[in-house]
């Protein structure tokens, strides 16, 4: 399908994830191309800290996409995403390789959609094996990380094909690099924030609430919330931090509670910021101006106290939560 001199653009979903980036690298290898003749595009940049670490360590270059820039290419390929995702922004695709269900079929001349698969990286690994391509350490590391992150460490939606790809890639990959991607470095200044916060840690009725004050990065709030959830007797954790002009709040539970974390933050903060998420993890981002307008002060201790109050009332008032606690106590 792809002629010798054809310029090919590989387009990924917004805020590309490891599966998408690894699949793009694999397609480029399959086509025998380099980053000049086959650049990788996305309409928005990579934002998640682990994904940015992957981009950095594996030196993946992603060019900002635009409808005009892509129109200049002879062929457009999409991996880990399908044409309907882009709508009018990108009406044409020549090659589509993906595992996401639920898209309307497109008229791309080459389509390989395997909705049973846990990752697109699995499909790409099969192509590389069939074509007897050499899989470099860099490519193997990317693909392994792609399979692993899309299947949440081989726990979700994983098939025999994914496991086969995983075992094929594992000996070829750089396990040290993977460890680095998994555990992003913490800034040293965070040690102080951490120690101050730990000295205030209290568990009331299974609930921990902490406000870290000013933080350098969004993921520090999330990491702190995950960390606090590990202490005995903790069922719910809310960790807040000031990031730029916003107050960011991460809410976590063990997914054994009946109340959804997403619903909880929507209910408490929906009127002053963007709030939502899943049953066991949710987030609220509130402009500090909006917080001040509703709550009066943005002093760190005052925010922490108020958050404790809000979450305590919200979780206690929910009939499902009271019932599930009673059940848990009964079974202990
Ligand atoms: Mn995927």
Q: How many helices in DSSP terms?
A: 13
How many DSSP-defined strands? 11
The strand line-up of the biggest sheet is 3-2-1-4-5-6
Ligand names? manganese (II) ion
CATH class of the largest domain: Alpha Beta
Low-confidence stretches: none
Roughly how many Å is the radius of gyration? 23 Å
**Element pattern in H and E:** EHEHEHEEEHHHHHEHEEHEEHHH
Largest pleated sheet: 6 strands, parallel
Instruction: Please estimate the helix content.
Output: 40-55%
Gap between N and C termini:
63 Å
Helix-strand makeup class: alpha/beta
Q: State which percent range the strand residues make up.
A: 15-25%
User: How many distinct domains?
Assistant: 2
Helix and strand topology:
Blueprint: E1 8-12, H1 18-30, E2 40-42, H2 49-57, E3 62-64, H3 67-71, E4 75-79, E5 95-98, E6 110-113, H4 120-130, H5 137-150, H6 160-169, H7 175-182, H8 189-200, E7 207-214, H9 218-228, E8 236-243, E9 246-253, H10 261-269, E10 274-277, E11 281-287, H11 288-295, H12 300-317, H13 319-331
Parallel strand pairs: 1-2, 1-4, 2-3, 4-5, 5-6, 7-8
Antiparallel strand pairs: 8-9, 9-11, 10-11
The structure holds manganese (II) ion.
The site of manganese (II) ion has 6 residues, from loops.
Which keywords apply here?
single chain, 332 residues, alpha/beta, inorganic pyrophosphatase (n-terminal core), Diaminopimelate Epimerase, Chain A, domain 1, five-stranded mixed β-sheet, 42% helix, elongated, binds manganese (II) ion
